[in-house]
Amino acid sequence: MRGMNRLRLPYVEDLVGMVVPLDRARITTVGRAGDLAFPDNPYLHRRVLEIGWSGGRWWMKNVGSWTTVRFGSRAEPIGVLLGRGRSIVLPGGDTHVVFAASRTEYEVVVRLPVEDDHHVAPPPQVSTEVTIGPRALTLEQIQMLVAFAEPILRSTCVSVSEIASMRDVEQRLGWSSAKLRRKLDYLCFKLDDAGVAGLVSDSVVPASRRRLRLVEWALGTGVIDRGGLRVLDVRSPLSVETVSEIDE
Hints:
Elements: E1 11-13, E2 19-21, E3 28-31, E4 36-37, E5 49-54, E6 57-62, E7 69-72, E8 80-82, E9 87-89, E10 93-101, E11 104-112, H1 139-154, H2 166-173, H3 177-193, H4 210-220
Parallel strand pairs: 3-4
Antiparallel strand pairs: 1-2, 1-11, 3-5, 5-6, 6-9, 7-8, 7-10, 10-11
Helix pairs in contact: 1-2, 1-4
């Protein structure tokens, strides 16, 4: 919807002219086939976000099965992570939301009247439709992700930026430097091919912050969690439930 009266109405927009009003009687979606649609990217979920009214307040939910979402205000860094299946209560005013699929990053803004500032109950779980995404991971790929994220998984006081170093992971898993680099390269390119952003630069050189981005993606999508720490001590060459392939 273009050119709508924006003064008092809640709405979501894509910053390039597309505006979708929010209706308290229905859920508004954002995604490849959403009410606010980005139809040209097959790596983008059909629905990434749901925005709806419940319990007297607006809420937003990440309904993508492997897409991480970040949000914040214009005055603050857009750095708060909204993981898969998680919901937040939206404050009055503007909330900037950023998500990515393959090499494309998207930003939308949810604009609410300030008086729409009340309390909300969490929304029900909503399943998403299948889109292009990463194939199942091998045991060693999961071990590597958990090892990088181990400081975060073991302590609630550690920020996501404090991931394990390459040397720490080598020692934790008993891998050589060459093996870890090879495994890391392989996984980053594999996920990049599946549309996970931020792991490979446009020049097809591994991104400098790829380890941090990899951990953010794994935590945000639920690929790993605290229960996964037990895989660090597994030394069997056989795969776990999620394994469907053996990498090099």
